[in-house]
Amino acid sequence: MTEAVGTKANPIAFDHESPQHAENWVPEFAEMRSKCPVAWTDKHEGYWVATGYEAVVEAAREPRLFSSHKNFSPETASGHGGITIPFTPIPRGLPVESDPPEWGVMRGFINRRFVPKAVETFREDARMFATALLNRVIESGEMDLVNDFTGPVPAMVTMQLMGLPLSEWRQFADPLHAMVFTPKEADNYAEVVAGVQWVFQRCAEEYMRYCTLPEEDNLLSYFAHNEARGGNKLTLDEVLSFSNNIIIGGVDTTTALTTHGLTYLHDHPEEKKRLMDNPELLPFAREEFLRFYTPIHGLARNVTEETELCGAKLNKGDRIYLAWSSANRDPGVFEDPDTINFDRESNRHVAFGSGIHRCIGSTFARMMFEEMVAQVFARIPDFTIDYAKAHRYPSIGTINGWESMPIRFAPGPKVPCALEL
Ligand code: HEM
Q1: Tell me: the pLDDT tens digits for 335-394?
Q2: Rounded Cα–Cα distance for residues 395 and 290 (Å)
Q3: Residue 234 belongs to a domain with what CATH number?
Q4: Does any domain span residue 413?
Q5: How far apart are CA 10 and CA 314, in angstroms?
Q6: 172 within domain boundaries
Q7: Nearest-atom index, ligand 1, CA of 242
Q8: How far is the centre of ligand 1, averaged over its atoms, from the C-alpha of 69 (Å)?
């Protein structure tokens, strides 16, 4: 008897990091959902792929069976676990690559800096950054939407949140974006890695500086002055693990969401007009963009003991990829899932994950999206995209975004702004 498709004995041919997947992911996931919503592939030393909504959510909500923990040894640059497949040889992110009870302590330590009231205090700054960035280019009638706008705004808000000097925004934004799409074989890969290392070196330096000053209202200063657990402050490694998760988790993801959303509005001028005429629809549009484009395409877990997930038999030590993007297109949950519909009545998408690790920065992301789109509507509503010169990420397995996107618009005047760039 032949083994069912998608078992270890009869694996599927699938690699979420391949260019074919980037080109073809919608039909590829549709087939996997219908035939084997949890399937085994031999790529990257072998892993399960959960594509059905039920399987993805069930695994995400069971951290005891599906662990996020990562071990990493800086001496050998090796380790195992964590939330990426293949394994990323850098120290773990916190709280995302921890399990309870450690996770509860770590998330509890930063939670109050991410609640809606705290996020609102950054709205004026986000607006100022978006205004200043458009002032830089508005007279010329052209810019790169990603590199000049949707990339820098989240980078600058994150720098403000962390307590990093804004004057360094360009050195900060560029390597974080490039890291996501530059292949390991590229000539400039070492340069990009050095740029990212510089960002974390700056976090360490600023943290040490905040240790010598009275407490200020930013995260690095908060880490420097407060006890995370049982009378102990964070170690420097833990400070850098938090910085890694907040910076890498929040910057390019929000860039991808906003860029994708603006491509849709560019391609559907009647929908753009509808949103501009009815701004109260913007939050519904935003949630549809999150569902439809799912900036974090999928993330991994480690199976901690033998278990069954939607009929698949998983063993201790197996790795599993939870495809948030596929869950968000599951026709059993979303009617007509491959269509963007601002009037969708129920939208329980998992673009921000599900369970205990659900995104702590979702309110920040939503706020930044709103401020960026508001600037575009107010100042360059007629923008046109030069798709022939725009580039998608060659691999979308972790983040699904745009590398660059030249746009043109009617030149306009600078407007008064407290920040000049
Ligand atoms: C559109 C933008 C964003 C998307 C799509 C997104 C997506 C996600 C997803 C899917 C997770 C779950 C990870 C898992 O289950 O393993 C997550 C967690 C997280 N995100 Fe976001 N995120 C976004 C923006 C942000 C922002 C702006 C920040 C910070 C300012 C942030 C910080 C974090 C952190 C710290 C976690 C870990 C939470 C935990 O483990 O308890 N994210 N995000």
Answers
A1: 999 999 999 999 999 999 999 999 999 999 999 999 999 999 999 999 999 999 999 999
A2: 19
A3: 1.10.630.10
A4: no
A5: 14
A6: yes
A7: 35
A8: 16
In 212-359, where does DSSP find H-type helix?
219-225, 236-267, 269-277, 282-293, 324-327
Is residue 234 included in any domain, yes or no? Answer: yes
Quick: pLDDT tens for 111-158: 999 999 999 999 999 999 999 999 999 999 999 999 999 999 999 999
Residues of the chain with pLDDT below 70 are: 1-2
Supply the range of the domain harboring residue 250. 19-408
C-alpha span between 107 and 47 (Å, rounded): 28
Nearest Cα residue to atom 17 of ligand 1: 359
Probe residue for ligand 1, chosen from 359, 364, 368, 370 as the CB with the greatest number of ligand atoms within 8 Å: 359
Whether 285 maps to a domain, the answer reads yes
Centre of ligand 1 from the C-alpha of residue 352, in Å: 6
352 lines ligand 1 (CB under 6 A): yes
Q: Give the whole-angstrom CA distance, residue 292 versus residue 257.
A: 10
**Using CA atoms, how far apart are residues 286 and 413, in angstroms rounded to an integer?**
28
